[in-house]
Write a structure and sequence with these properties.
alpha/beta, 246 residues, three-stranded antiparallel sheet, Rossmann fold, binds 2-amino-2-deoxy-6-O-phosphono-alpha-D-glucopyranose
Length: 246
Amino acid sequence: MEIIVTKNYNELSGVAAKMVIDQINKKKTSILGLATGNTVLGFYKELVKAYHRKEIDFKKIKTFNLDEFVGLDDTDHASLFYFMRKNFFDKVNLNPRNVNMLDGRAKNLNVECKKFDEQIKKSKGIDLQILGIGLNGHIGWNEPGSGFKSKTRVLNLTLSSRRAQSGNFENLRQVPKKAMTIGMGAIMEAKKIMLMASGENKADIVAKALTGKVRKKVPASILQRHPNLTVVLDEAAAAKLHKSVK
Ligand code: GLP
C-alpha cells in the first residue's frame, strides 16, 4: 500500500485527480469506479478543470458508480445520480451510454444489482476504483458486517450513515433507510484502488482501517489485502497513523 499525505484538502484533490489523469492517458478506454460524498467534490472539480485544459478526454471512458439510495433516481436532487450529474457527468465529455448507475427505482432491485455485477464483469472489471470512507469504515455502502466477497445488493443503512447524509435531505427521517451498493467482491477485484479521506473526523477510522486488524466490523480494513492500493490523505485525516506507516 502506498500512502500519500498531502498538506490540505486542495492538495489532496489535485493529487487524486492526477492519478485519474495518468490512468486515462495510459489507457483511453479505462473503466473507472466512482464514488460520491463531500470528500470527492474537490477531486471532481480538478478533473473538470483538467478536461477544460484539454489534459484529459473522457470520450471512451466507462464508469460504474458505487451506490444509490433505494427509491431515488436522477430526477431527485438528493440522489447520488443527481450528485454525479451536477458535479461531474454533465461537465465532461463522457458518453451517457458509458455511464453506469444503479437504478434506485428499478422494479426489481435484486435483478438490477445482479445486472450491475454482470455489466462490470462484461467490461472486464474496474481499472481504477475511487473510494471514500464512512465514519464507521464503510466503503461504497458496505456497512460493518458486510462479507468481504459480497456481491452488489440492497442493504439497510446504519443510523451513522443516515445521519452523515441528512444534510442533503430536509431531515433525518427523509433519508432512505435502504441503499444499493456494489459488493466488496467487485471493489477488491478492481485492478487499482485509490482511497481518499480528509479531515480530523476521519483520522480514527483511517488508522483503524489501514493499520488495525482486518475484520468485517471495519469493512475498509480489507483494503490492506489489495495488491495495488494508494491512499491519499490530508494531514488531518492522517493524524492518527504512526510515523512508520506514513
Ligand atoms: C457515503 C458514500 C461513500 C462515501 C462515504 C464518505 O455514504 N456511500 O461512497 O465514500 O460515505 O462520504 P464523505 O466523503 O461525505 O465523508
